[in-house]
Amino acid sequence: MSNDTSRVEKDMRLDFEKRMAYGDYLRLDDLLSAQSPLSDKQDEMLFIIVHHVQELWLNLIIHELEFAIANLREDKAGLAFKALARVSRVQEQLVTAWDVLSTMTPSDYLTFRDVLGQASGFQSHQYRLVEILLGAKDPRMLLPHKHRPEIYERMQAAFRGPSIYDEAIALIARQGFEIPDTLLNRDFSKNHVINEELSAAWLQIYRNPDQYFELYELAEELVDVEDHFQQWRFRHMKTVERIIGHKKGTGGSSGVGFLKTALDRTFFPELWAVRTEL
Q1: Of 61, 122, 178, 188, which shows the fewest CB atoms inside 10 Å?
Q2: Distance CA 52, CA 49 (A)
């Protein structure tokens, strides 16, 4: 038996003097140097990393939602389904991230909370962009990003454009369902309002899944995304309540009260209402 316990294999590259290595490709120096606590408190690193991880996942969700929107517009529903399924899996990671943050106690958080100043999660432009792409349009929530023109312009473009639900509605119309023009040619900067004729179309799809399977699957993919999104919102609210109770948020919001207001809002109202009608 050989005394050599090394796991290095003959063809493994070990010299990266003039080659791109793993850390180079991922730009790990940039990524890891971004964790720069402003205090010397143990739990601030946890707080920063959890939020960095969530921002990375949000970046991927935006990437996939924009891909899904573009493919629905071109009647490539299968590609959109794949992207939406991936979004749902990413959202599972977002939900479990709160479990990690919940290991921080109220006393732990208070040791460094003051260094946050007025920084707060509601100022995340990526979170807001995800909401916009899903259909939540509140012009005042764009204001925290007005000082960053490149970000603000991107958000404005998404704000004025159709959401993924608007593209789903347009797809239904192209497949022969009677959809009112007020839904197809509307001001997309306004929130979608539940519509009886659209509800009737979804009801027909759900009552005949074999006949309209592509649209049926689209509906369920959208419901998956909203379901996971609401789970994430709920876990966020409960994590905040667990750590700061009902104190005001660092950004001036009511904290838990503010987060609770999002729980009763829906992106795709007809898809939830159809369950009662079936």
Answers
A1: 178
A2: 5
Q: Which residue has the tokens 């996942």?
A: 57
SS3 of residue 166 by DSSP: helix
- Hey, CA dihedral for 50, 121, 88, 66, is it positive or negative? negative
Look up tokens 């920084």; give the residue: 119
Which three-class secondary structure state does DSSP give residue 248?
Answer: coil
How far apart, in whole angstroms, are the C-alpha atoms of residue 236 and residue 217? 29
The rounded distance, in Å, linking the Cα atoms of 184 and 271 is 17
The 10s digit of each residue's pLDDT in 100-132 is 999 999 999 999 999 999 999 889 999 999 999
DSSP codes of every residue in 80-94: HHHHHHHHHHHHHHH
Closest C-alpha among 50, 268, 139, 27 to residue 58:
50
DSSP secondary structure code for residue 249 in this structure: P
Say what the pTM is. 0.94
User: Would you state the structure tokens that stand for residue 42, as one six-digit string?
Assistant: 């143990």
DSSP annotation string for 134-197: HT---GGGGGGGTT-HHHHHHHHHHHHS--HHHHHHHHHHHTT----HHHHSS-TTSPP---HH
Checking if the pLDDT of 205 tops 80, the result is: yes
Name the nearest CA neighbour of 265 among 222, 239, 233: 233
Judge contact between 137 and 191, C-beta under 8 A.
yes
Please determine, for residue 10, whether its predicted confidence score (pLDDT) is greater than 90.
no
Burial 230-258 (b: 16+ CB within 10 A, else e): bebbbbbbebbbbbbeeeebbbeeebbeb
Q: Is the pLDDT of residue 174 over 90?
A: yes
- Single out the residue of 140, 259, 134, 275 nearest to residue 199, CA to CA: 275
Angle, vertex CA 135, rays to CA 134 and CA 140, nearest 5: 120
